[in-house]
Amino acid sequence: MRSEEVAAKALKLVGDDRYMLALAVAKRAEALAGGAKSLLDIDVTKMKFADIALREIAEGKIALEGIVEAAK
């Protein structure tokens, strides 16, 4: 899946709210950088944390409510 497709899919899951998507990606990427395990079934060793987070959101593997609530 191309990055544009991933971003479009993730954006639809957050109701086209770019701010919420950016916040969710940032929080998940921060967690990944802190040692959290990726939820993807692919090799992520050469991917950036933000790309992993975006793809996890696009695939519906992340509950956005929990991430956004924790940021408040």
UniProtKB/TrEMBL annotation:
<keyword id="KW-0240">DNA-directed RNA polymerase</keyword>
<comment type="function">
    <text>Promotes RNA polymerase assembly. Latches the N- and C-terminal regions of the beta' subunit thereby facilitating its interaction with the beta and alpha subunits.</text>
</comment>
<dbReference type="GO" id="GO:0000428">
    <property type="term" value="C:DNA-directed RNA polymerase complex"/>
</dbReference>
<dbReference type="InterPro" id="IPR036161">
    <property type="entry name" value="RPB6/omega-like_sf"/>
</dbReference>
<comment type="subunit">
    <text>The RNAP catalytic core consists of 2 alpha, 1 beta, 1 beta' and 1 omega subunit. When a sigma factor is associated with the core the holoenzyme is formed, which can initiate transcription.</text>
</comment>
<keyword id="KW-0808">Transferase</keyword>
<dbReference type="GO" id="GO:0006351">
    <property type="term" value="P:DNA-templated transcription"/>
</dbReference>
<dbReference type="GO" id="GO:0003677">
    <property type="term" value="F:DNA binding"/>
</dbReference>
<comment type="similarity">
    <text>Belongs to the RNA polymerase subunit omega family.</text>
</comment>
<dbReference type="InterPro" id="IPR006110">
    <property type="entry name" value="Pol_omega/Rpo6/RPB6"/>
</dbReference>
<protein>
    <recommendedName>
        <fullName>DNA-directed RNA polymerase subunit omega</fullName>
        <ecNumber>2.7.7.6</ecNumber>
    </recommendedName>
</protein>
<keyword id="KW-0804">Transcription</keyword>
<dbReference type="InterPro" id="IPR003716">
    <property type="entry name" value="DNA-dir_RNA_pol_omega"/>
</dbReference>
<dbReference type="GO" id="GO:0003899">
    <property type="term" value="F:DNA-directed RNA polymerase activity"/>
</dbReference>
<dbReference type="Pfam" id="PF01192">
    <property type="entry name" value="RNA_pol_Rpb6"/>
</dbReference>
<keyword id="KW-0548">Nucleotidyltransferase</keyword>
